[in-house]
Specification:
about 130 residues; mainly beta; Thiol Ester Dehydrase, Chain A; 6-stranded antiparallel beta sheet; 1 helix; 6 strands; about 10% helix; globular
Length: about 130
């Protein structure tokens, strides 16, 4: 299977009208974005759905591994929720590569409240290069 970017990714695609439209900044083996969850992404009242939190972490970890044209796919992800992500409160999403092998890339990610840096969720993932 060949992965292609048609600009309609739910998390970062600028041409997905229902997507999150994340925009990333990069350093070596690192990616970062910010996000403010709107009310239509809640699970319980005023709390962002955990699937959205997981999506943010998955996306930032994949983006941290984009290097030399690699198009990795998530093979395994583990998410640990620490605090609720409150609707309307900006967060910072960060991801970084912890290990690279020929086809396997290991990553870590975090979501923190922008206002005070409190950890909302953290994750690890194993990505496979196509």
């Amino acid at each position: 299977m060949v992965f292609e970017d048609d600009r309609k990714c739910f998390a970062c695609g600028p041409e997905n009208s229902r997507g999150l439209k994340l925009v990333f900044s990069y350093a070596e083996n690192y990616a970062k974005s910010s996000f403010t969850p709107p009310a239509d992404l809640q699970g319980y009242k005023d709390i962002t759905h955990g699937g959205i939190v997981s999506t943010l972490l998955d996306e930032v970890m994949v983006h941290s591994a984009l290097k030399d044209g690699a198009m990795p796919a998530t093979a395994e992800i583990t998410v640990r929720f620490k605090k609720p992500m409150i609707i309307g409160q900006p967060v910072i999403i960060e991801g970084w590569v912890t290990k690279r092998a020929s086809r396997l890339i290991e990553t870590r990610g975090s979501v923190k409240r922008e206002s005070d840096g409190a950890l909302i969720a953290e994750a690890t993932a194993k990505l496979i290069k196509q």
